[in-house]
Structures are given as C-alpha cells and as structure tokens.
Amino acid sequence: MTDDSFNSLDGGGLFPRLQQRYGLRENPLEMETPFFPDGMRHHALEALRHLCGFGDMALLLTGAPGSGKSRLLAELVRSESSRLGFHRLPAAAMTSSSALARDLKQVARSGANADDNSREAVYRFFRWSEGRVVKGQRMVLLIDDADRAPPELLRLILGGFLAADRAKAAVPVFAGEDRLVTLLGLEDSSVSIHQIHLRPLTKGEVFLYLEPRVHKAGGKVNELLSSARLARIYDLSQGSFSRLQRVTPGIWLDIVSNSLKQKPARRIDFRALRLPALALLLLAGSWWFVSQQYDETVAVEIEAVPEPEQVRKSITIGPETLEGDVPVESPSPLTEETVPLDSVSEPEPEPEPEPEPEPEPEPEPEPEPEPGFVPENANKYVDIEQLRSRSEGWTIQLVAGNLEQTALNVISRYPSLDEMVYTLGERKSEAWFMVLYGNYSSKEDAQKAASRLPDALISRTPWVRTTEGL
C-alpha cells in the first residue's frame, strides 16, 4: 500500500496518475452525490426522518468505523432542515457535565440561574424544547462519535429526554460503534430507544456504489470494475466506505495487486528443532524402559502365587447305609390323633373391600378478565380487529409510536382530515399506536390519496399498507 493521498493534486498524487491512465474527469471517490440507497441505507434514512419528526424514542445509529454513519446524518440534515431544527454536540466538546450544560443553555437562550446545577440545566433544556413543536419545528440533537464521549454524559442526555414529554422534546440521535449499547446501559427489552444498525456492504453493493461514480467521472466500468479488480476491492475494503476510498485507487493503478498473491512458504530451520527432537526422543526412551520394568514385575508376581489344590468329594444317593453312617429313624405311622395335611382345608380368603370412589375435583374459578383499553379520543379510535376485517383492504399509515399522545398530537394538528383515525396494536410485546387515513379498494387508489395529503405529511413518507397486515 502507498501513503500517497488519493485527493492530492500535485505531481506525485494518485489522482493525476489516474487521470493520465484512464482519462478521468473528476475524482469518483470524492463524489457526495448521488446518495447511496442500497445496503439498507435508504431504509435507515427514512426511519430517521420519520422518528425524528413524530417518534417518542431516542435514536441509536450504530455500525463499524467507515460504515457511513456521518454521511447518513449529513443527508438527514440536508433533506429535513426545513422542518426540523438540528444541533450538533461534538463528542470532543463533551468534556464534562458543566460544558454540556453551557452548550445547551446557549441553544435554549434560557434565563436559568447561574447557580443551577448541570443536571437541572440539561433537564430544563428538554422541557424548553417541547415548546418548539408548537411553533412547527421539532429539535434534534446529533451526537456523532458518541462512543468516544463519557458514558455518564450520554446517560444524562438520555435521562433528560425520558423525563420530558417524549413526543415533543428534542430527539437525541446517538451515532457510534456497537459498544454504544453497553455504554448507555440499555437492555434488550428497552422501548425508550430505537437502534438502527448499518451493516457492511456486500460485493454486489460495492459495485452498485462505484458504478455510477465511475461512469460520471468518464471512466470505463468494464475496465475499472472488472470481476478481478472488484474482487480485490471487496476483499481489501471489507464492505467499508472509508477502506473503499483508500484501497480502490491503488488497485486501479495495480499498486496493491501483488498484496493478495499467496506468500511463499516459510522455510523451516531444522537445526532449531534438534534440541526439542532430542528431548522428545529421551522422553520416549524413558517411557519404554519404565513400561518394560512394570511388565516384568507383574509377570514375576503371577508366577509366585501357587494354585490351590483341588479336593474331590463324593455324594452317595440311595437307601443303602454305608459302614460308619448314622441310621436315620423312620417316621412314626399316623395315629388317630394325627390329622393328615391333605385333609385340612385352607380357609377361604375374605373378599377385598371395594375401593371408595375418589371425589371429583372442584372446578377452578375462571380468571377475571383484564380491563380493556379506554381511548382518550373515542370518536377517532377504531379497534384493530374492525380495521382488519374491512372489505376494501388498503389504508395509509401516517405515524406510529408507543404513546397514545403521539397519535393524538397528529390528529389534533390536521382537523380537516376527517378520515384520520387511530388504533392500538402490539410491537415487541408493547402497545403500538398507529394513525391511519382512508379505506381504499386498491393500492393505486391509496397512493393517489397519499399524494393529495398536506405537504408536511407527504415529506414524512406515508406508508401505504393493507389493513389485513395491521
């Protein structure tokens, strides 16, 4: 690998050499546009747009270094700055709770007392940010490289958000590596924060990322992205955007082509193995000697033990009495008082008592039914089973969240949309409130109706879905 900068324009840089060799008009790897939508990046951007505008959860954007987290946040600010107020909190500036409090006080321009402690100042900022929603612009705090900030400051920001009205307060967006989950002390069942993970690119996605940039720069796609070069780019970059920018120019100039070749086998120095081999040989010899000694000892002990002599005994069966035998008296004949055993009848056994029938178990009392959900706005609430049974089958989902107040806020902002209703479902074993609009017989009719919604709702990308899948 070379240390030359790909972005350098001097005579020794790589870009002039690429221009000379391939006739490129501009640097393909410095192009910020078009935004790369594959690799679930567009899905992650839409989730950030929706949850920053209407969500009631803090957001966690995770991924390996070079996975495109900063680029995704930049695209979020570019596309949503007209309706959302963004404020960046650099991790390097978050040195203490007092420094964090001073930064947030400048944003809020609050008249807080100077003797307020840092924790109260942070909590006061989130309560102040609730009023920005009334003015039509919700605030978003962007904490990039949050895994480099002190964990206690991250928990302080999260605590201030959870203590405020989560549907209106400034939404904190923590961006960093996967260890952010541990730093924030989150559990798997936590519903107060939503994680969006950016995975590495696949080989096909690397091609989709480079192909439009090479074409725009005036290069030949079949030459710069041939199967051999694409394989080397993917192997060295490991699906990371930052590694992609470093290794690609060197591969195009055949500077790192030899790095993937198989290294020659290392020559074994047998002289260094002489002492271990000698020690192993001595160990094997001593083991053989000890085993021979053991076998000889066992053989001598077996020969020294005499076998016991066998004694034969005879048994005579019959009426004859041998000399020296003691005669056996014959049994006396039966007398009148003697009763033969055969004539004595055995007593009949008493019948066993029949087992008493077991008592029937008493029926268990039925559990009392749990109290049902009582909506705050009954006129706009529709049961989810009633929606699933609709014959038309298509509707438009405008917003969803864990709090009923989130749905009520959206409905109250647009009183002119009479067909707007909300319902209660379940997501991750938690309550999930959804705001829906309309009932349509086909997906095309629902899409046409979505295009006629107010601009503020269209910018949040309404979801056309089936009522059966609610």
Question: Can you give keywords for this protein?
Answer:
extended, four-stranded antiparallel beta sheet, disordered N terminus, alpha/beta, 470 residues, five-stranded parallel beta sheet
What is the secondary structure topology, with strand pairs?
Blueprint: H1 14-22, H2 41-54, E1 58-63, H3 69-80, E2 84-88, H4 97-108, H5 118-134, E3 138-143, H6 151-163, E4 171-176, H7 180-183, E5 193-198, H8 203-217, H9 221-224, H10 227-237, H11 241-252, H12 274-304, H13 384-388, E6 394-401, H14 404-413, E7 420-427, E8 430-440, H15 443-451, H16 455-458, E9 463-466
Parallel strand pairs: 1-4, 1-5, 2-3, 3-4
Antiparallel strand pairs: 6-8, 6-9, 7-8
N-to-C order of helices and strands: HHEHEHHEHEHEHHHHHHEHEEHHE
Count the helices. How many? 16
Q: Strand fraction band?
A: 5-15%
Query: Gap between N and C termini, in Å?
Result: 53 Å
Question: What structural class results from the helix and strand content?
Answer: alpha/beta
Biggest sheet, spatial arrangement of strands: 2-3-4-1-5
Structure summary, number of beta strands: 9
Q: Uncertain segments of ≥5 residues (pLDDT<50)?
A: 1-12, 258-263, 320-345
Helix content: 25-40%
Sheet bearing the most strands, described?
5 strands, parallel
Rg is 43 Å
| Large-scale geometry | extended
Summarize model confidence as the mean pLDDT: 80
